[in-house]
Amino acid sequence: MPQLIRKGIRIDESFAEAFPMTGSGVVVTAPTRKWALQAATTMTGYATSVIGCDCEAGIDRELSTRETPDGRPGVRVLLFGFSPKSVEKALVNRIGQCVLTCPGSAVFSAFDGEAKIKVGDSMRQFGDKWQISKAIDGRRYWRVPVMDGEFLVESSVGLTKKSVGGGNLLIMGEDWAKTMRATEAAVEAVHNTPDAIAPFPGGVVRSGSKVGSKYKGMGASTNDAYCPTLRGATNSALDADIGCVLEIVIDGLTSEAVAAGMRAGLKAIIALGPKNGAKRVGAGNYGGKLGPFHYHLKDLV
Protein backbone atom coordinates (compact mmCIF):
# COMPACT_ATOMS: atom_id res chain seq x y z
CA MET A 1 0.00 0.00 0.00
CA PRO A 2 1.36 3.50 -0.82
CA GLN A 3 2.44 5.36 2.29
CA LEU A 4 3.46 8.81 3.46
CA ILE A 5 6.23 9.19 6.04
CA ARG A 6 5.77 11.69 8.87
CA LYS A 7 8.58 11.92 11.43
CA GLY A 8 9.47 8.28 10.78
CA ILE A 9 5.90 6.96 11.02
CA ARG A 10 4.35 5.31 7.98
CA ILE A 11 0.90 6.72 7.15
CA ASP A 12 -1.15 4.54 4.79
CA GLU A 13 -2.66 6.30 1.81
CA SER A 14 -6.00 4.88 2.83
CA PHE A 15 -9.24 6.20 4.24
CA ALA A 16 -11.70 5.66 7.06
CA GLU A 17 -15.18 4.95 5.82
CA ALA A 18 -18.03 6.28 7.95
CA PHE A 19 -21.80 6.41 7.81
CA PRO A 20 -24.67 8.76 8.75
CA MET A 21 -26.04 8.60 12.30
CA THR A 22 -28.54 10.44 14.45
CA GLY A 23 -27.02 12.20 17.45
CA SER A 24 -28.22 13.70 20.68
CA GLY A 25 -26.62 14.95 23.86
CA VAL A 26 -27.23 16.00 27.42
CA VAL A 27 -25.44 17.90 30.12
CA VAL A 28 -25.55 16.02 33.41
CA THR A 29 -24.85 18.03 36.56
CA ALA A 30 -24.54 17.16 40.23
CA PRO A 31 -23.51 18.79 43.52
CA THR A 32 -19.96 17.45 43.07
CA ARG A 33 -17.71 16.43 40.15
CA LYS A 34 -17.66 12.88 41.51
CA TRP A 35 -21.39 12.39 41.18
CA ALA A 36 -21.67 14.17 37.82
CA LEU A 37 -19.00 11.83 36.47
CA GLN A 38 -20.66 8.84 38.12
CA ALA A 39 -23.97 9.58 36.41
CA ALA A 40 -22.31 10.17 33.03
CA THR A 41 -20.11 7.08 33.28
CA THR A 42 -23.03 4.86 34.25
CA MET A 43 -25.21 6.31 31.51
CA THR A 44 -22.61 5.61 28.82
CA GLY A 45 -21.94 2.01 29.84
CA TYR A 46 -22.47 -0.81 27.34
CA ALA A 47 -22.67 1.67 24.47
CA THR A 48 -19.66 0.79 22.34
CA SER A 49 -21.17 -0.28 19.02
CA VAL A 50 -24.64 -0.39 17.51
CA ILE A 51 -23.70 -3.87 16.28
CA GLY A 52 -24.60 -5.17 19.73
CA CYS A 53 -25.71 -2.18 21.84
CA ASP A 54 -28.78 0.06 21.72
CA CYS A 55 -26.58 3.06 20.93
CA GLU A 56 -23.02 4.40 20.87
CA ALA A 57 -22.30 6.89 23.64
CA GLY A 58 -19.48 8.58 25.45
CA ILE A 59 -18.35 11.55 27.49
CA ASP A 60 -17.57 14.53 25.27
CA ARG A 61 -16.00 16.59 28.06
CA GLU A 62 -16.30 17.76 31.64
CA LEU A 63 -17.82 21.20 32.23
CA SER A 64 -16.86 23.74 34.85
CA THR A 65 -19.40 25.37 37.12
CA ARG A 66 -19.26 28.43 34.83
CA GLU A 67 -20.34 26.34 31.83
CA THR A 68 -23.40 24.53 33.20
CA PRO A 69 -26.98 25.87 33.34
CA ASP A 70 -27.27 25.43 37.12
CA GLY A 71 -23.73 26.45 38.10
CA ARG A 72 -22.76 22.98 39.30
CA PRO A 73 -20.06 20.56 38.04
CA GLY A 74 -21.19 18.89 34.83
CA VAL A 75 -20.42 16.43 32.09
CA ARG A 76 -21.46 16.65 28.44
CA VAL A 77 -22.58 13.27 27.10
CA LEU A 78 -23.17 12.42 23.43
CA LEU A 79 -25.24 9.52 22.16
CA PHE A 80 -25.62 8.14 18.62
CA GLY A 81 -27.91 5.68 16.84
CA PHE A 82 -29.21 4.83 13.40
CA SER A 83 -32.58 6.60 13.72
CA PRO A 84 -34.32 9.27 15.82
CA LYS A 85 -36.56 6.57 17.33
CA SER A 86 -33.64 4.40 18.41
CA VAL A 87 -31.80 7.39 19.89
CA GLU A 88 -34.92 8.51 21.77
CA LYS A 89 -35.50 5.05 23.24
CA ALA A 90 -31.88 4.62 24.31
CA LEU A 91 -31.60 8.13 25.76
CA VAL A 92 -34.81 7.99 27.78
CA ASN A 93 -34.01 4.51 29.10
CA ARG A 94 -30.47 5.45 30.06
CA ILE A 95 -31.45 8.68 31.79
CA GLY A 96 -34.26 6.90 33.61
CA GLN A 97 -32.09 4.06 34.84
CA CYS A 98 -28.71 5.74 35.27
CA VAL A 99 -29.20 9.49 35.89
CA LEU A 100 -32.57 9.80 37.61
CA THR A 101 -31.27 7.22 40.09
CA CYS A 102 -27.94 9.01 40.69
CA PRO A 103 -27.85 11.25 43.81
CA GLY A 104 -28.12 14.97 43.19
CA SER A 105 -28.28 14.74 39.39
CA ALA A 106 -30.00 17.05 36.90
CA VAL A 107 -30.28 16.86 33.08
CA PHE A 108 -30.17 19.62 30.48
CA SER A 109 -30.08 19.60 26.68
CA ALA A 110 -26.52 19.77 25.31
CA PHE A 111 -27.56 21.55 22.11
CA ASP A 112 -30.74 22.65 20.34
CA GLY A 113 -30.52 20.60 17.11
CA GLU A 114 -33.02 20.53 14.25
CA ALA A 115 -35.44 18.28 16.19
CA LYS A 116 -36.28 17.39 19.79
CA ILE A 117 -36.47 14.26 21.92
CA LYS A 118 -38.98 14.21 24.76
CA VAL A 119 -36.94 13.38 27.84
CA GLY A 120 -38.47 15.11 30.88
CA ASP A 121 -41.89 14.83 29.24
CA SER A 122 -41.37 11.06 29.00
CA MET A 123 -40.31 10.45 32.59
CA ARG A 124 -42.25 13.10 34.51
CA GLN A 125 -44.90 10.56 35.56
CA PHE A 126 -42.36 8.99 37.88
CA GLY A 127 -43.38 11.89 40.14
CA ASP A 128 -46.83 10.28 40.54
CA LYS A 129 -48.59 13.66 40.05
CA TRP A 130 -46.33 15.41 42.57
CA GLN A 131 -44.13 16.68 39.70
CA ILE A 132 -44.40 20.28 38.57
CA SER A 133 -43.22 22.03 35.41
CA LYS A 134 -41.30 25.28 35.27
CA ALA A 135 -40.36 27.53 32.35
CA ILE A 136 -37.09 29.47 32.51
CA ASP A 137 -35.83 31.66 29.66
CA GLY A 138 -38.11 29.95 27.19
CA ARG A 139 -37.08 26.42 28.16
CA ARG A 140 -39.35 24.00 30.01
CA TYR A 141 -38.23 21.80 32.89
CA TRP A 142 -39.78 19.18 35.13
CA ARG A 143 -39.13 19.08 38.87
CA VAL A 144 -39.68 15.50 39.97
CA PRO A 145 -39.60 14.84 43.75
CA VAL A 146 -37.10 12.15 44.77
CA MET A 147 -35.78 11.03 48.13
CA ASP A 148 -32.75 13.37 48.17
CA GLY A 149 -34.71 16.39 46.95
CA GLU A 150 -35.73 17.03 43.31
CA PHE A 151 -34.68 15.63 39.96
CA LEU A 152 -34.60 18.56 37.53
CA VAL A 153 -34.86 17.46 33.90
CA GLU A 154 -35.38 19.48 30.74
CA SER A 155 -38.62 18.56 28.98
CA SER A 156 -36.89 17.87 25.66
CA VAL A 157 -33.33 17.77 24.34
CA GLY A 158 -31.81 18.44 20.94
CA LEU A 159 -31.35 15.90 18.15
CA THR A 160 -29.46 16.11 14.87
CA LYS A 161 -29.52 13.90 11.78
CA LYS A 162 -26.19 15.32 10.60
CA SER A 163 -24.06 13.07 12.80
CA VAL A 164 -21.45 10.63 11.54
CA GLY A 165 -20.24 7.35 13.02
CA GLY A 166 -17.29 5.15 12.18
CA GLY A 167 -14.33 7.46 11.77
CA ASN A 168 -11.30 5.41 12.74
CA LEU A 169 -7.56 5.03 13.05
CA LEU A 170 -5.64 1.75 13.01
CA ILE A 171 -2.54 2.23 15.15
CA MET A 172 0.24 -0.29 14.50
CA GLY A 173 3.34 -0.73 16.61
CA GLU A 174 6.20 -3.02 17.48
CA ASP A 175 4.62 -4.32 20.69
CA TRP A 176 1.60 -3.83 22.97
CA ALA A 177 3.22 -1.23 25.26
CA LYS A 178 4.41 1.08 22.49
CA THR A 179 1.21 0.72 20.49
CA MET A 180 -0.90 1.46 23.55
CA ARG A 181 1.25 4.49 24.38
CA ALA A 182 0.53 5.96 20.95
CA THR A 183 -3.14 4.98 21.12
CA GLU A 184 -3.66 6.58 24.52
CA ALA A 185 -2.08 9.80 23.26
CA ALA A 186 -4.47 9.75 20.31
CA VAL A 187 -7.50 9.03 22.51
CA GLU A 188 -6.62 11.97 24.73
CA ALA A 189 -6.46 14.18 21.65
CA VAL A 190 -9.87 12.92 20.49
CA HIS A 191 -11.30 13.64 23.94
CA ASN A 192 -10.13 17.22 23.58
CA THR A 193 -11.99 17.56 20.27
CA PRO A 194 -15.42 19.21 20.66
CA ASP A 195 -18.50 17.24 19.55
CA ALA A 196 -16.60 13.95 19.09
CA ILE A 197 -16.37 10.79 21.18
CA ALA A 198 -14.50 7.50 21.11
CA PRO A 199 -17.16 5.11 22.49
CA PHE A 200 -15.13 1.94 23.09
CA PRO A 201 -13.49 1.01 26.45
CA GLY A 202 -11.07 3.81 27.28
CA GLY A 203 -11.59 4.91 23.68
CA VAL A 204 -9.76 1.83 22.35
CA VAL A 205 -10.79 -1.24 20.31
CA ARG A 206 -8.56 -4.32 20.20
CA SER A 207 -11.09 -6.48 18.33
CA GLY A 208 -11.47 -4.66 15.05
CA SER A 209 -13.87 -6.48 12.77
CA LYS A 210 -14.52 -7.15 9.12
CA VAL A 211 -17.91 -7.58 7.49
CA GLY A 212 -19.05 -11.21 7.30
CA SER A 213 -17.84 -14.50 8.70
CA LYS A 214 -17.22 -18.15 7.86
CA TYR A 215 -20.12 -18.87 10.20
CA LYS A 216 -23.66 -18.48 8.87
CA GLY A 217 -25.56 -15.63 10.49
CA MET A 218 -22.49 -13.81 11.81
CA GLY A 219 -22.52 -10.26 10.42
CA ALA A 220 -19.01 -9.42 11.60
CA SER A 221 -15.89 -11.30 12.62
CA THR A 222 -12.28 -10.69 13.58
CA ASN A 223 -10.27 -8.56 11.18
CA ASP A 224 -7.81 -11.35 10.39
CA ALA A 225 -5.75 -9.19 8.01
CA TYR A 226 -4.68 -7.11 11.03
CA CYS A 227 -4.17 -9.96 13.54
CA PRO A 228 -0.40 -10.42 14.11
CA THR A 229 -0.80 -14.06 15.15
CA LEU A 230 -2.39 -14.90 11.79
CA ARG A 231 0.45 -13.48 9.71
CA GLY A 232 1.41 -16.24 7.28
CA ALA A 233 -1.95 -17.96 7.60
CA THR A 234 -4.11 -15.25 6.06
CA ASN A 235 -3.84 -12.39 3.59
CA SER A 236 -2.12 -10.21 6.16
CA ALA A 237 -1.97 -6.43 5.87
CA LEU A 238 0.84 -6.22 8.42
CA ASP A 239 4.53 -5.56 7.90
CA ALA A 240 7.17 -7.70 9.58
CA ASP A 241 7.89 -5.05 12.23
CA ILE A 242 4.27 -4.82 13.45
CA GLY A 243 3.39 -6.88 16.53
CA CYS A 244 0.24 -5.14 17.76
CA VAL A 245 -2.70 -3.22 16.28
CA LEU A 246 -5.23 -1.10 18.18
CA GLU A 247 -8.12 0.90 16.77
CA ILE A 248 -9.88 4.11 17.72
CA VAL A 249 -13.45 4.60 16.47
CA ILE A 250 -14.74 8.16 16.41
CA ASP A 251 -18.36 9.37 16.29
CA GLY A 252 -19.22 13.04 15.92
CA LEU A 253 -22.19 15.38 15.83
CA THR A 254 -20.93 16.52 12.41
CA SER A 255 -18.59 15.23 9.73
CA GLU A 256 -16.25 18.10 10.59
CA ALA A 257 -16.06 16.89 14.21
CA VAL A 258 -15.07 13.37 13.09
CA ALA A 259 -12.39 14.77 10.77
CA ALA A 260 -11.10 17.00 13.56
CA GLY A 261 -10.93 14.04 15.96
CA MET A 262 -9.00 11.92 13.46
CA ARG A 263 -6.65 14.81 12.68
CA ALA A 264 -5.98 15.41 16.38
CA GLY A 265 -5.33 11.70 16.97
CA LEU A 266 -2.91 11.49 14.05
CA LYS A 267 -1.07 14.58 15.24
CA ALA A 268 -0.61 13.09 18.71
CA ILE A 269 0.68 9.80 17.29
CA ILE A 270 3.14 11.52 14.99
CA ALA A 271 4.37 13.78 17.80
CA LEU A 272 5.19 10.75 19.94
CA GLY A 273 7.34 9.24 17.19
CA PRO A 274 8.09 5.62 16.20
CA LYS A 275 10.72 4.96 18.89
CA ASN A 276 8.24 5.29 21.73
CA GLY A 277 4.96 4.77 19.90
CA ALA A 278 3.49 3.62 16.61
CA LYS A 279 5.41 2.66 13.50
CA ARG A 280 2.44 2.86 11.15
CA VAL A 281 -1.12 4.25 11.02
CA GLY A 282 -3.90 3.03 8.76
CA ALA A 283 -7.67 3.29 8.56
CA GLY A 284 -10.52 0.85 8.10
CA ASN A 285 -12.78 0.92 5.08
CA TYR A 286 -14.89 -1.40 2.97
CA GLY A 287 -13.94 -0.13 -0.43
CA GLY A 288 -16.45 2.69 -0.27
CA LYS A 289 -19.44 0.35 -0.02
CA LEU A 290 -20.36 0.99 3.63
CA GLY A 291 -20.85 4.72 3.95
CA PRO A 292 -20.60 8.04 2.10
CA PHE A 293 -18.12 9.71 4.45
CA HIS A 294 -14.49 9.02 3.49
CA TYR A 295 -11.66 10.47 5.60
CA HIS A 296 -8.36 10.13 3.72
CA LEU A 297 -5.36 10.06 6.05
CA LYS A 298 -3.20 12.03 3.59
CA ASP A 299 -5.64 14.93 3.95
CA LEU A 300 -5.44 14.87 7.75
CA VAL A 301 -1.65 14.96 8.31
Explain the overall architecture.
Helices cover 22% and strands 37% of the residues. The chain contains five helices and 17 strands. Helix 1 packs across helix 2. It starts with a strand and ends in a 5-residue tail after the last strand. The mean pLDDT is 96.
Q: Tell me about the biggest sheet? A: 15 strands, mixed
Mean pLDDT: 96
- Helical stretch count? 5
Q: Give the class from helix and strand content and strand pairing.
A: alpha+beta
Radius of gyration: 21 Å
Percent in strands: 35-45%
Distance N to C terminus: 17 Å
Approximate shape = elongated
Q: What oligomeric state is this?
A: single chain
Low-pLDDT ranges:
none
The sequence of SSEs as H and E is: EEEHEEHEEHEEEEHEEEEHEE
Number-wise, the strands total: 17
Estimate the helix proportion, in percent.
10-25%
Key descriptive features of the protein:
301 residues; 5 helices
Briefly summarize what is shown.
By secondary structure, the protein is an alpha+beta fold.
